[in-house]
Specification:
92 residues, alpha+beta, three-stranded mixed sheet, 3 helices, elongated
Length: 92
């Protein structure tokens, strides 16, 4: 008889999952604003750089089951940081 080695399935702990969701939320709220200051907030144009970076990381995620959840968290963070003054804004 030949003994076969079985591989253990990679299991992600809950704390790692929550940390990743938190980091995706922070990435989703990262915007870069061009042209203007706080006084001229209507004339600024924003680019959701954190969303693009987060989509890249989520695409190359090892656990593909969580990918849809990560996309939703990124989009929610982007919309929330666009509507409300939440998140990080880099003014250039």
């Amino acid at each position: 008889m030949v003994k076969r080695k079985t591989k253990k399935a990679a299991v992600e702990t809950d704390s790692i999952f929550l940390l990743k969701i938190f980091l995706y939320f922070l990435l989703g709220s990262l915007w870069v604003r061009f042209g203007g200051s706080d006084d001229q907030s209507l004339q600024t144009v924003g680019l959701p750089v954190g969303l693009l970076i987060g989509l890249y990381f989520a695409k190359h995620e090892h656990f593909q089951i969580d990918r849809k959840i990560e996309y939703v968290v990124l989009l929610l963070a982007m919309v929330l940081s666009y509507i409300a003054p939440v998140g990080f804004v880099l003014v250039i």
